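User: Design a sequence. Structure:
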C-alpha cells in the first residue's frame, strides 16, 4: 500500500519556521514509522534528519510525536495508525533540525537527581545483595530508557522549563527505594525543591506516553509521599 507521511520539518539555516512536508511512500503492513522515515531519507530527501540507533525500543533515541502522541518510531507500526501518518519533534524541546531536539537540558535534569547507587560501606566480596521483595520495590522504574517521551508530554514542563520533569523523578525513584542506597535523603531534598515533584499536577500524560508502560504518575506520587513522611 501507499502511506502518506507528513513530517514537520525545520532547518534553522534555511527555514524561518517549521513547515509540514508530505511524502507518499510504499509501505508494507508490518512497517514501522521508522521504516517509513528511512524510506523517505533513502528515496526522497537525504537531508531528512532524525535519531535512531537500536531500532528495537531499547535505546530511546527515536521518540517523536506521531499522530499527535509521543511514541517511539521503531515501536509503532503503520497499520496501527492508518494510511496517514504525521510526525513531529518532541513538543516543548528546542528543535536542532527536523525531528532532532536538544536533549542536553533533559539530561541536565536527569543528572541533577544523582541517578546512581551511593553506598559508602566497604564493598562485599561479591555483589551487594538484597531480598527479592526489596528488588521488587523499584522494579518498574528500572525500565526507563530516557527517551524523554514522558517529560516532553507534560504540560507542567511546557510551562516551566526548570521543572525537573517526570523522567528525572522516575530515575530518582529507582534509587530512593533501593534498600542498598544511602543517598535517598539527599535525593528527596533535591526533589522537595519548588521545581521538583510539586510541579506535577497528576495529569497522567507522562504515564500515557511511556513506551515502556512505567506507572510514572504513581512513581512521582510515591516520591512526594516519601518527602512528606520525611518532613513529618
Ligand atoms: S531506535 Fe532505539 S528505541 Fe527506537
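Assistant: Done.
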Amino acid at each position: 500500500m501507499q502511506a502518506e507521511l507528513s513530517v514537520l520539518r525545520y532547518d534553522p539555516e534555511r527555514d524561518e519556521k517549521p513547515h509540514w512536508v508530505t511524502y507518499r511512500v510504499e509501505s508494507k503492513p508490518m512497517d514501522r514509522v521508522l521504516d517509513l522515515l528511512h524510506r523517505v531519507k533513502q528515496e526522497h530527501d537525504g537531508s531528512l534528519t532524525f535519531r535512531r540507533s537500536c531500532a528495537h525500543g531499547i535505546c530511546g533515541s527515536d521518540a517523536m510525536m506521531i499522530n499527535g502522541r509521543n511514541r517511539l518510531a521503531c515501536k509503532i507500526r503503520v497499520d496501527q495508525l492508518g494510511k496517514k501518518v504525521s510526525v513531529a519533534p518532541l513538543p516543548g524541546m528546542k528543535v536542532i533540525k527536523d525531528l532532532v531536539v536538544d536533549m542536553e537540558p533533559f539530561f541536565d535534569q536527569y543528572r541533577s537527581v544523582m541517578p546512581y547507587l551511593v553506598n559508602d560501606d566497604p564493598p562485599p566480596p561479591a555483589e551487594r545483595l538484597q531480598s527479592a521483595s526489596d528488588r521488587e520495590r523499584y522494579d518498574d522504574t528500572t525500565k526507563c530508557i530516557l527517551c524523554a517521551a514522558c517529560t516532553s508530554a507534560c504540560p507542567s514542563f511546557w510551562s516551566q522549563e526548570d521543572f525537573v520533569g517526570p523522567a528525572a523523578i522516575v530515575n530518582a525513584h529507582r534509587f530512593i527505594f533501593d534498600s542498598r542506597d544511602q543517598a535517598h535523603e539527599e535525593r528527596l531534598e533535591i526533589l522537595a525543591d519548588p521545581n521538583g515533584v510539586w510541579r506535577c499536577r497528576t495529569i497522567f500524560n507522562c504515564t500515557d506516553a511511556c513506551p515502556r508502560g512505567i506507572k510514572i504518575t504513581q512513581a512521582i506520587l510515591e516520591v512526594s509521599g516519601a518527602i512528606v513522611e520525611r518532613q513529618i
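The longest strand covers residues 2-9. Strands lie at 2-9, 19-26, 63-66, 69-72, 84-88, 95-97, 100-101.
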